[in-house]
């Protein structure tokens, strides 16, 4: 299921609160950061918030700068990003500003919530997702039915926590403001619960007046057959590596990365790397790792093309090398076509041996691109 790129955006106090318990919204950033947020809003296809934020803040969620809206229109996009609200209960104030400002709105809710929201006259496209609210279904619907490729999530804490816990966040943009709230009843950015393992990767820090912006991305692979946002991140890197392969008319160009369960990159490789005319990407990457490395057992191999099942150039195909290395999870973008080997089924070989193979076909075009000359 392809999903949009999901960017979580929030401002917090030094003690990790999103707000205080007063009736007015606590302003954590200053004008320069609000302007940065406005630019991020202008860059995305949709902005999502939870019903709790609509109730607490009554926000408009607009792109405020006229020149940014004009640039969107000039680029053939709607003046405002799609506004997306999430509510289980459907218990929403139809007069809230969210519904009466900006462009199109969509409300994702439950079957029961949809009835209640429609009865109340909420001015939005109301989409029921069943008896409960299912985040993958919601993201998939935004991607398929609404064409959303970049989604900005502006809170609150309940929504942010769920997306991060379920491995659905591609990036976190966090602003830390120099004040303390100290009220245990105030909402926190991330509530207690089971989050993915490992450290997030720090992409950027930036001082903006007296606040600090930090951008992070999750790196820990998913487990089993379920893909998380970090899986897409690593598979994109594998596809980028495929572009670096020395060209060939007799073999595919493939990139591969091996990543430990905590998100540590163990090795990467690509076809025909370092002057070896027959080395495959997975083989090149695995050769750089100590076979006794205990992290291999829980590692994931990302390969732009499914690992080969048969090859003439070396005794063992890559699917076998992966299994022999102890790896039991592979993420790939593209099943091997019959170009060189008829009926190659590296995924079958891997799954028959108990490994999980996750295919993310939304990266297939990227994986095929450096092989276009072979595909006729
Ligand atoms: N500082 C910042 O950057 C920032 C940004 C945004 C918000 N905030 C603050 O955050 C606070 C609000 O946060 P919050 O955590 O209370 O609310 P929230 O995350 O905005 O919304 C939570 C609501 O969303 C719906 N929801 C979310 N996940 C659901 C699921 N899996 N199933 C069913 N319904 C689901 C539920 O709506 P129903 O109750 O309708 O079922 C739930 O009560 C406010 O104080 C606001 O000021 C701060």
From TrEMBL:
One of its GO terms (molecular function) is diaminohydroxyphosphoribosylaminopyrimidine deaminase activity. It catalyses: 2,5-diamino-6-hydroxy-4-(5-phosphoribosylamino)-pyrimidine + H2O + H(+) = 5-amino-6-(5-phospho-D-ribosylamino)uracil + NH4(+); 5-amino-6-(5-phospho-D-ribitylamino)uracil + NADP(+) = 5-amino-6-(5-phospho-D-ribosylamino)uracil + NADPH + H(+). GO terms for biological process: riboflavin biosynthetic process. Pfam families: dCMP_cyt_deam_1, RibD_C. Pathway: Cofactor biosynthesis; riboflavin biosynthesis; 5-amino-6-(D-ribitylamino)uracil from GTP: step 2/4. Residues 229-357 form the CMP/dCMP-type deaminase domain. Its EC number is 3.5.4.26. Keywords: NADP, Oxidoreductase. InterPro entries: CMP_dCMP_dom, Cytidine_deaminase-like, DHFR-like_dom_sf, RibDG_C, Riboflavin_Biosynth_HTPR. It is an enzyme of class 3 (hydrolase). Converts 2,5-diamino-6-(ribosylamino)-4(3h)-pyrimidinone 5'-phosphate into 5-amino-6-(ribosylamino)-2,4(1h,3h)-pyrimidinedione 5'-phosphate. In the C-terminal section; belongs to the HTP reductase family. In the N-terminal section; belongs to the cytidine and deoxycytidylate deaminase family. This is Riboflavin biosynthesis protein RibD.
